[in-house]
Amino acid sequence: MMRLRYAFAAAGFTLLLWQGIVWITGVPPFILPSPVRVGQAAYANRVLIAENAWVTACEVGLALIIGTVLGAITAVRLAASPRLHRLLTPMLIFTQAVPVFALAPILTLWFGYGIASKVVMAVLIIYFPVTSAFYDGLTRVPAGILDMARTMGGTERQIMRRIKIPHALPSLGTGLKLAAVYAPIGAVIGEWVGASKGLGYLMLLANGRAKTDLMFASLFTLAIMTLLLHVAVTKVSDRLSRY
Amino acid sequence: MQAPAIQLSGSYHIDGTCLFAPIDMTLPAGEWTCVLGRSGVGKSTILRLIAGVRCEGDFQGEITASDGLPLVGRVSVMAQSDLLLPWLSVLENTVLGARLRGEVPDLQRAGNLLEWVGLARHAGKKPDSLSGGMRQRTALARTLMEDRPVVLLDEPFSALDAGTRADMQDLAAGLLKDKTVLLVTHDPAEAVRLGHQIIVLTADAAQPWTPPSLPPIRDQYAPETVECQAQLLAHLRRAQ
Q1: Under CATH, what is the fold of the domain A50-241?
Q2: Is A147 within 8 Å of B99 when comparing Cβ atoms?
Q3: Cβ count within 10 A of residue A17
Q4: Residues of A in contact with B102 (CB under 8 A)
Q5: pLDDT in tens, B130-161
Q6: Of the candidates A203, A194, A84, which has an alpha carbon nearest to the alpha carbon of residue A138?
Q7: What ipTM describes this predicted complex?
Q8: Are A225 and A184 in contact (CB under 8 A)?
């Protein structure tokens, strides 16, 4: 509760400072609109913003689900097979060396202007952190527990299912928290490159028509969505960490 | 399942350095053997070798059971750390072995074992909410649940307070009767109280130490027990 109060106080202070700068400098609204003007634009365009926000939310939600499932499966496979790990890890690291944003035009070419290219873009961004965090947890089970499990005659499959995966769930939660922040970035970049819907598209459209207030309104909507997603994922992550 | 005697003979090297020279050691069938020695002399390594779990070094020798059968699947281990899984309840931790083998656990028997170790009322609790003694009793119940003829104990009571440790020694001695037990310990009092056979391990040899004539579990205040403890402690200090 106290943290929430501080967050509101900090937000209020920032808005006041922003409004103050606009008043004092007299900067034109198409360069920097005042927060009041942004609020008015957000209200006036609420239906338009909501429609586009829904599209972005769908892209992010789908990417989170697909990226998490793919990342978790990869991590389990890598942890189950050291040979596969030795084979795939250099490739995974190499894919991270390629700036994923640079792939956005190709993805749009391959998957079209619809939701698919944005989902693929966001999945590519979150796949590695999820895989890496979960794999880390799977391979950090104390040796004593694994020795005991093997002395008991445990099969590798059951050891994975009953010991390694539960032990690694808090690490998966950490990966999910990162993914929740990265996924909207991927979706919006995808929308910038080629889209007819979504908050990224709306921001680009507003910017091109010098509707800076609408662009800011879209930006804040995206930020609020990301924050809400982060809070939700943190709750899930905390539940995973609570044994 | 009849508990076999275990014969270990051989030497152990890590990166070319000898941890212990060729030694011969017999764990008599259905009895407790307590192994003492300074830290790093290889007590836990012997336990790991018998348990058949991975070791860093190279063992040259052999480990055999008196019945000629392999030891795999006939050994259970209880360590200093309780190794309880924090996301499982006391009952679920007790039946972990069956779950890991993909078998349906005998919950009735697990319940009885928890009754024996005094944890029946705590069966649904998670390890985090238990005291150190209760956690070790859960680990003991898990070891008993495996019902293996050979039980290897690696300083399982060393982290407990004196009173709880004595209680756990009584409990373990009663419940592990007729099993071939190897207890690795740093505590001469514990070895003298529990051991049918006591072995002092040095880098050169596994020397037997004559325990008191009374059978275990011995009265720790009996003059013969106290005398044996004192002499054993003096011997260990000299050996260091």
Answers
A1: MetI-like fold (1.10.3720)
A2: no
A3: 11
A4: 155, 157-158
A5: 998 899 999 999 998 998 999 999 998 887 88
A6: A84
A7: 0.86
A8: yes
